[in-house]
Amino acid sequence: MIKTQIKTTCPYCGVGCGIIATVDDPAGHQVSIQGDPEHPANFGKLCSKGAALSDTVSLENRLLYPEVSGKRCDWDTALDAVADGLTRIIRDYGPDAVAFYVSGQLLTEDYYVANKLMKGFIGSANIDTNSRLCMSSAVAGYKRAFGADAVPGNYEDLELADLIVLTGSNTAWCHPVIFQRIRKAREKNPSLKIVVIDPRRTATCDSADLHLAVKPGMDGLLFNGLLSFLAQTGALDKVYIDAHTEGFDSALVSAMASAGTIADVAEGCGLTAADVEQFFNWFAGTRNVVTVYSQGINQSGSGSDKCNAIINCHLATGKIGQPGMGPFSFTGQPNAMGGREVGGLANTLAAHMELDNPEQVDLVGRFWGSDRVAARPGLKAVELFDAIYDGSVKAVWIIATNPVVTLPNADKIKAALKQCELVIVSDCIEATDTMDLAHIKLPALGWSEKDGTVTNMERRISRQRPLFQASGMAKPDWWIICQVATRMGYREAFNYRTSADIFREHAALSGFENDDSGLVRDFNISSFAGIKQEQFDQLQPVQWPVTDNAPDGTARLFGDGQFYTVSKKAQFIAIQPRPPVNAPNRQYPFTLNTGRLRDQWHTMTRTGLSARLNAHKPEPFVEIHPADAAEYKLKTQDLAVLESRWGSMIARVVTTDSQQPGSVFVPMHWTAQLSSRGRIGALVNPVVDPCSGQPESKQTPVAIARYPAKWYGMILSRSPLMITGIEYVVKIKGNGFSRYELADSTQPHHWRQWLETIRSKPVENNDWLEYSDPELGAYRSALVIDNRLDCCLFVSSTPVLPEPAWLATLFSQETLSRAERLRLLSGLPPMGGEDCGRIVCSCFNVGEKSIAKAVKTFGLNNVEEIGQRLSAGTGCGSCIPELKKYLSQNAAADRA
Amino acid sequence: MKLKLVVIGNGMAGMRTVESLIESAPDLYDITVFGAEPYGNYNRILLTPVLYGEKRVDDIMIHDFAWYHKHGITLYCGPDKTVVDVDREKQIVIARDGTQAYYDKLLIATGSVPLILPIPGRDADGVMSFREIADVEAMIEKSETRQHAVVLGGGLLGIEAANGLQQRGMNVTVVNRAGHLLNRQLDDQAGAMLKKQLESKGLSFKLGCTINNIIAVEGHISQVELSDGSVLQADLLIMATGILPNMMLARRIGLDCEQGIVVDDSLRTSDPAIYSVGECVQHRGELFGLVAPVYEQAKVCAQHLAHKKAPVYQSLQPATRLKVTGIDLFSAGDFAGEAGAEQIVFIDPALNIYKKLIIKNSLIAGVLLYGDTADSAWYLDLLKNKIDISPLRDGLIFGQTPLSVAA
Q: How far apart are CA A79 and CA A484, in angstroms?
C-alpha cells in the first residue's frame, strides 16, 4: 500500500515549520512526522514538540460531540442554542453584551469569519484573542513606528547578520528551529556575535557571546541607553533619520534624560558598565544587526514602549529594511500573525485596517455588505473578562483557548465564567479548565483534521492540510461560526462551502481599495483573490504582500524607506522607561517570572498527551537562586508555596544560579486538569500595558515558603485514578500509564486501602507487593494483575523518590520477571538492567544516566561525539545546552 | 613422643575440630575417637534428603573409614564403643565394652539428644525421634507399610521430617504448640506463609495445641489425642520438640554443667585437660543447635589444642536455613524485633516472599528472609561487621545495589 504523504504546517510556535506527514493508518490516526526539507522556515528540521506530533493526534481527550447543558445533542440543537442565546442577549442588552475570545491556534479562515461575524454583523468589537497575551505590545510597537503591523525582515536575516541581539527571548526553547538556524549561521560565520538580554541565564545563553542579566523589566532603560550612546558616539545614520523618520529629537531627549550615561544604564539595569559598553559598542559598530524580541519584552506594563525603544535604535542607525538587519518580533503561536491580519484583536478592524478610521470602517462595511460594522475598539482580554465578572458582558464564546489557565489573576477568570449567563466553548479537547465551565460545548477539528492557512512570524502564509477525516461529529471552526451566523440571520454573508472560499474573500478584502486613492495598506494578498480550489490546495509557502507587483511574495519590507504612516515616514517614539508596576515588597519579596518550557505547549492539552514530551520537566517547578533558597530553607526537590496578592500555587523547587537573586521563575503550562495547585496564572498580576492591553506576566511580586509536606508520593498507574483530597497532585502522561506526583501535610491512615479507594476499577486479584520502613515514613506498594504491573505507589517523608524511568518501562511489558518483581519497589532495575535516568533528549529518548555512562565509557568530549554515539542532540537540538552543561561539569569534576 | 588426644563423639563438631587440628598441627597428637553410631562422621543435616530419597547414606559421609586410616586416627565406633566413664585422675576413657584409652587432652563432643516429652503412651512402637541414621531407616520402613504420620513439633526438624514422610507417600499432620511454624526462626507473618506453602504441598497442621495422649493397639501407636480434643490417626509419631545437650557423661564425671557443659572462651571445661564443642556445650549462657556456630567453635578449639596463638570464641549470630525443596528461608539475629526496634519489611505474597530487617542505631540487628534468600550472606556480613546501613537503607531490603546505578 502506498501511504499518503501530506505537506502541512506545525501547530505550535510562530516559526511555522513545514511538515511532511505520512499517514500510516487513517482510521487509527497513525501518522509519521518529518520536517519538510523544502519548507523555507525549517528546511527539514523539527523541534521535540513538532517531532512528537504523532503522539498527540489520537482520540484521547477529544471532544467529539456537541453538548448543551451537559447533555449530548445534535448539531442543530447546539447551533440553535448558541444563535438563540446570543440573539436574545443582543436583543435585551445590545451587541456589546456579547463577546468572542479566540485564539492564535485558529486558522486564518476561522479567524476571518469570527471577526466578520462580531465586528461586521453583530456590530461590536468585543472579539479579542489570546494573542493579546503574547504579542499585542509588538503589534502596538510596529504600528506606532511603521504605521502598520508589519514585520520588516525574515529568518534569512538571522543568517546574514553579524550581530544578533536576543532580548526577552529564550529562543533555544521557545523557537528551537530558529535557534538551530542561528547556531548553524554562527558555524558558518564565526564573526557572528550573539547577545542575550534576559534576567535568567536560559538555555539560549549557552550560545551567547555576552549575556546581560538585566534587572527584571528594565530593558526599556537599556535600549534608551543604547540610543543615547549611539548619539554620543556619532553612530547615528543622520541621512536615514532625516530622509525616512520623524520624532528623533524628542526620542533622544527622553533617552538622554533617563539613560544618559553608561553608568546610569548599568546601575538601573543591574549590569556592569563594561558589559553594557560592550553591547553598545557591538551594536554601534555592526551594520548587520537583528534584534529579536519576544515575550520578555511584550508581556510588560510598558511592553509597547520597550518595543519602540528597540525599534528607535534600528531607525536611528538605519538598520532596517535591508538583508541581515532589523527589529524582529518573535510570536508564540502558529497563527498569531494570521489573527493580526484578519483583525482578530479588539482594537483592529480587518485586513490591517483600524476601527477608529471612519474611512476604513466604511470600506469594510461596503465590502462585507453590512451597515453595522463596529466603529470603536472592543474590550481587550483582561478588560473583557472583567466585564464578564461585573456582568456587563453576559455571553462569551471562547474558541480554541483556555483563559481560565492563561489569563492573569486566573482565579478571577474562573469566577467570572462561573457567573456568566452563557458560556460557549469550541475546542477539540474534551477536558480543559475552561471547557469545564461551558454551558454549550462545540467539538472543533484538531490540527490533524484542519484545512486552511496560517501565517508565521516572517509573514509567510503556509497551508495546514488535513491528515485525517473529521473525528466524531467535530466540525471546522469556520463552519461552526458560519452556521451560527446563518441562524442569527446573516446567511448571505456567511455562505461558504470551503475554507478556500473564505481565503479568497480575505484576499479580496486585503486588496479592496488598497491603492493610492486612499491610505495604502501593508497587508495585501490580492493575488489570491481569484485563487481556485486546486490552487489553494497546492499553495506553496509565500510571504505577504503578494500582489500583482510581487506575485511571488515579498521577502522584506521598508527597503525603500517608505512606511505606512500618513507621512510615509517611520516614527520615533519618545520613551520614558518604567519599572514593573508592582514592585516587590516585604510581604512579597520576589519577582515572579513566567515562561515556556522546551517540551510543552501552552496548557498541555496536546503536549500533555505525549509521554516523551513529559519526561524532561514533568512537574510545575520554581527556579530560585541558591542563596535565596538557603535563606528560605528550600532545597531542590522540596515543594514550595508561592503566593501573590492574587493567588497561590505549589511548585517543585529547583535551585539554580541561572536565576538572579530576588527573582523566581515558574513555567506557565500547568492546568487544573493535570495539577491540583500548579496554575501559575492564578498568581500573575492583572496589570496591563496601557497602550497594548497586554498583561505584565513576567513580573509579579510573590512570597515563597516551603510547603510543610508530611509525605511525598509517586504513583504510576495503568488506569486513571480519582485522586481527591490530596493537596499536591500532578498528573504526568507516560507510555501506557499515568504518573502522579503527590504530597500532603496529612497522611492517609492506611496506604493500601487508600490506594484501593482511588482506583476506579475494583481490585479483583489481590496480588499486592508491599514495602515499608515506617521509621523513614517510607511505604511502597505495587498491584500486579496477571503478572502485569498495574499500579505502583512510592511514599517517603522526604521529597526524594525513585527516578521513574525504569518503572515506566515495566508498563510496556506483558509480564514481570521474578527479578523485576523483586526489584520493583526499589524503583531500580535488577542487576544488569539499564536505568537510563531522567530523559534529556526527548527526540531520541536518551536519559542522563545513559549519557553519563557513554561519556565515561567512550571518553566522549563534545556534543557531536555524544550525538554520534547516542543520537542525543541530533534531532531538534534543544537539549544541546544541557549536554554542554553536563560535559563542562563533568570536565570540572575530573579536574577536581 | 606424641601427645594423646581422645575425642568422645564422632559427630560433626568433634570431627571438624580434629580436621582443623590435623591441618594446623599434623604431628602433635595421636588421636583416638569414640563414636556410638556404627559409621564414620556423617553430615547429620543431610539426613533430611536421605529421608526424601534424594541422597543415600553414602552420599552424606563427611569422613569415611579410609579417612581415619589415612590420618592414623584410631576409631572405635558402634553402640559397644559408647563411652561410659572417664577417669579424670588417670586420664583414661572407658567404653561400654571395656575399651580404654589414655589421654593428655580430652575432647567431649557428645552433641545433643532429642527431647522426649513425657506423654502417656510414648513407649509404644512407632514413636520415635529424627536424629540418627537409624531413625531415618526406621521412618522409611514405616512409610512403606503405613499411612498416617504425626509430627510433634513445627520447628526445622519437625517440618523437614513431615515433608520427607509426605514425600514418601504418608498423610502427615504437624502438631505444634506455638501458633505459627518455626517460631524460633520466623515471625507469625513468615510462619503463615510457610504454612500456606506447605499446605499446598499436601501437609496438614494443628497449631496451638499439643498431644495429650498416645493410644496404642497391640503395642503399636494407632491414634493421638490432642489438647483441643481432636483425635488423629497415627501409625508413626515423630517427636521433634527440640534437643537437649547431651551432658550425661560430663555431669557424671563431675565437670561443671548447667544447661550444657560449661566452657570458657577457649572451649575448655572446668577441667583444664578437657575441652568440649558442639551442641553439648553452654558458652556464656548460650546453647547451640545450628552448624555454623558449632563449626566456629571447632575452629577455635582446634587452635587451642594445637597450642597456636589462641583465638577467643565469640558466639555468632545464629542463621537458619530450612531444607525443604522450594522453600528458602533465612533468619539471623534479633529477627523478631524488640519493642522500639525499626523494621523494614518487603512482601510479595504471590511469590511467597517476605523479608524483614530489624534496624537498631543504623545497624542491622536481625534478618528474616522468606522465599528469597539470595542476599542472606550480604546481610549477615553487614550484621556481623556492624556496618552503618544509613546510606544503603533505601534499597537495603532489595539486595545488593546494581552496579549500573553507581555509574
A: 6
